[in-house]
Amino acid sequence: MIKLFSLKQQKKDEESAGGTRAGVGGKKASAAQLRIQKDINELNLPKTCEIVFPDQDDLLNFKLIISPDEGFYKGGKFVFSFKVGQGYPHDPPKEPNPEDPLNKEAAEVLQTNRRLFEQNVQRSLRGGYVGATYFERCLK
Question: What is the pTM of this model?
Answer without folding.
Answer: 0.45
